[in-house]
Design brief:
The protein contains seven helices and no strands. By secondary structure, the chain is mostly helical. It has one domain. The longest helix has 32 residues. The termini are far apart. The N terminus is likely disordered.
C-alpha cells in the first residue's frame, strides 16, 4: 500500500459539503452579472467576501494538516513551512476585500482569481511530496475549476461593461 493509499477514502459528506459550498459562488456570481445596477454592488461585495472566506478555509486545511502531523514523520522544517504557507490564503483574501474597498471590485476579483489559481497549484506540489491526500486533490481541483469559472466570468463581464440579462 502506498503512502497516499494509507490516507484512506475522502468522506462522502466532505464532497457534498464542498459542492454545496459552490452555491454562494454561483448565486452571487449570476446576480452580479444579471441584476440591475442598484443591487450589483451588494452582490459583488458578497461574492468577494465569500471568496475571501473560502480562500482562508483552503489555507486552514493545511494548518490543520500541519498541526495534526499529517502525514507522520515529516521534518520539523517542512512542518514550519506548511504552517507559514497556510496563512497566505487568508492574507490574500483579506487583501482582496481591502482592494474592493480602495480600488474596486475588479481589482479584488483579479486577486481572488490569482489566489484560487495559486492554492491548488501549490497543493499539487504538496501532493507530489506526499503531503496531501490524493482524493483531497481531486475535490480541490473540481471545486476550484467552478470557483474560477464564476470569478473569471464576473471579472470579464465587469471589464467589458456588459450585462448578461
Amino acid at each position: 500500500m502506498s503512502e497516499h493509499d494509507a490516507w484512506g477514502k475522502l468522506p462522502g459528506l466532505a464532497v457534498v459539503i464542498g459542492i454545496a459550498g459552490l452555491i454562494p459562488f454561483i448565486v452571487l456570481g449570476l446576480a452580479s452579472v444579471t441584476l440591475d445596477d442598484a443591487k450589483v454592488a451588494t452582490m459583488l461585495a458578497g461574492l468577494i467576501a465569500y471568496g475571501a472566506v473560502i480562500l482562508s478555509f483552503v489555507g486552514a486545511v493545511h494548518w490543520g494538516f500541519a498541526l495534526a502531523g499529517i502525514p507522520r514523520n515529516i521534518p520539523l522544517k517542512l512542518t514550519r513551512l506548511r504552517l507559514v504557507l497556510s496563512v497566505v490564503p487568508s492574507l490574500v483574501g483579506w487583501a482582496a476585500v481591502l482592494l474592493s474597498i480602495v480600488f474596486g471590485a475588479e481589482a479584488a476579483l483579479g486577486l481572488l482569481v490569482a489566489g484560487f489559481v495559486a492554492a491548488p497549484v501549490l497543493e499539487q506540489q504538496g501532493y507530489n511530496r506526499g503531503l496531501t491526500p490524493p482524493r483531497y486533490m481531486w475535490l480541490r481541483w473540481g471545486l476550484t475549476i467552478v470557483v474560477l469559472a464564476v470569478l473569471v466570468t464576473v471579472l470579464t463581464v465587469r471589464l467589458i461593461g456588459a450585462k448578461l440579462r
